[in-house]
């Protein structure tokens, strides 16, 4: 079980089979999902923050996955949304593969808070392991409603994801 996701993700912030024809449109959908229930936060400002972050370097991590994430004033704790696209869009990922899965995050803009920084890095590390697991990615692409995708995130056996990451690492080591 992955306890971080129970705190930061909610079924209502999961969008299935979304239609996007560009990276910006995919980020717009993620922005809209992230601000659900936050009347004080404008989704356009979140989108602008994502676009600015993407100019620094793509958050496309490969295998059809992107993890756009930004620090944002006005939120108290890390907040996540998941977007499953009907078809991939160019995200300028290092492997050149189009992105069809986005796990977007807003983090509080308190970079001096060591605990918040640690949590942020831990969540990114867990996401990297999950999205490196072919079985997890296959399920994330096949499930078609927010509740079952939420259950996938919170109940996926982390040992399986860690094993997949270890296998991938060993395969990369032997290729060198």
In summary, what is this structure?
The protein is α/β, with parallel strands linked by helices and 176 residues long. The chain has helices spanning 3-8, 23-34, 43-56, 114-131, 134-142, 146-155, 158-175, and strands at residues 14-18, 60-62, 65-66, 69-72, 79-89, 99-108. Strands 1, 2, 3, 4, 5 and 6 form a six-stranded mixed beta sheet that branches.
Please describe what this structure looks like:
With 176 residues, the chain is of the alpha/beta class. The protein has one domain: Mannitol-specific EII, Chain A (3-Layer(aba) Sandwich), CATH 3.40.930.10. Helices cover 49% and strands 20% of the residues. It contains 7 helices and 6 strands. Strands 1, 2, 3, 4, 5 and 6 form a 6-stranded mixed β-sheet that branches. Helix 2 (23-34) crosses helix 3 (43-56) and helix 4 (114-131) packs across helix 7 (158-175). The chain is globular. The model is unreliable at 162-176 (pLDDT under 50).
